[in-house]
Amino acid sequence: MEDQRIDVYISDNNTECERLVDFLQEADISFTLKNTTENKQHLTDLQKNNIYLTPAIIIDDHYQVIGFQPNKIRRFLRK
Q1: Smaller CB count within 10 Å for the chain: N or C?
Q2: How many CB atoms lie within 10 A of CB 53?
């Protein structure tokens, strides 16, 4: 089975972002972290997907989850 591409967009000083990253790490899910505070290009990329807040997850360039929604995230994962 092919690995899923999981991009996680976060911003600094955001408790929900911290909870999301902790959740993914505890579940041993591989992801690419993209901090929109540190790199404005990540913010631009996120906005191209019509997403204007963090945390946000884009899975396989198709599925989007906005906010910390563990149950919804699990539905989109093939793990």
Answers
A1: N
A2: 13
Q: What is the pTM of this model?
A: 0.92
CB 23 within 8 A of CB 67: no
Average pLDDT, the chain: 93
pLDDT of residue 30: 93
- Of 6, 8, 66, 12, which is closest to residue 38 (Cα–Cα)? 12
Six-digit token string for 66: 């906005």
CA 75 to chain centre: 14
Helices (H), the chain: 15-26, 40-48, 70-76
Give strand pairing partners of 64: 58
Instruction: Map residue 35 onto helix, strand or coil.
Output: strand
